[in-house]
Amino acid sequence: MTKPPAKKTARASLSLDALPAARPKRAESGPFEVPKLQRNTLNDEVYDQLKQAIMAGRLEPGVRMTIRSLAAAFGISLMPVREALRRLVAEQVLEMLPNRSVALPVITRERFREITQIRISLESLAAEEAAGRVTDADIETLDRLNAAMEKPNAAQSPGYLESNREFHFYLYRKSGLTILVSLIESLWLQIGPLLTIQQAAIARTPTPPQVHHHVLLRALKKRDAKAAGRAIGADIDDAAKIIAKAL
Prior knowledge:
Elements (H helix, E strand, L loop, with lengths): L41 H14 L8 E3 H8 L3 H13 L4 E3 L3 E3 L5 H23 L4 H14 L10 H14 L4 H14 L3 H8 L8 H11 L3 H20 L3
Antiparallel strand pairs: 1-3, 2-3
């Protein structure tokens, strides 16, 4: 008798998905928390992330940063970080140190006074121009941003300076003067780290009132350009007096 053909035993297929995932290597920590970036437009993204961190006071003057530590924090190669740092050094926002490291320069009292005078002129102009362009919806947005800064203990939050920056630059961008906004941004990059001094002083008040912001909002509702400019100038001047005492 002919034996029936043996039944073939089905072979279980092995999928890579069934394998346990490899544990990711622990990345070298950077000087602050940053999101992982995509591979496109990396130079600009690193540049923008560093600028935002500096203007929000998340980096202190004199603190060293290496290309390698920043690349590890961003999860990217060295080249985009090197190019971003090169741009910031060329703009005199960062200074190059030995061993391929960079740092925010320490600002002298004289330099801070000069920057403050220029800021008052430029930012007052931006506020005046914005007063004639803002809509009611824009004013509501500014009002919400300011309200967030006046919540109890808001000044003790790490995001306080970021909210303050967002309030100011939302207004300045409404001026429609892109060159002016770029100039203002370059000045904020130089004094951003010092804003933590102002934050510490405000934090001693349980619910810090943003007096000049309220004056500004009233001026915007009336579309009073000159009053808006004066409010911004007074806001900068008061903050500068607090910071200057610590320099």
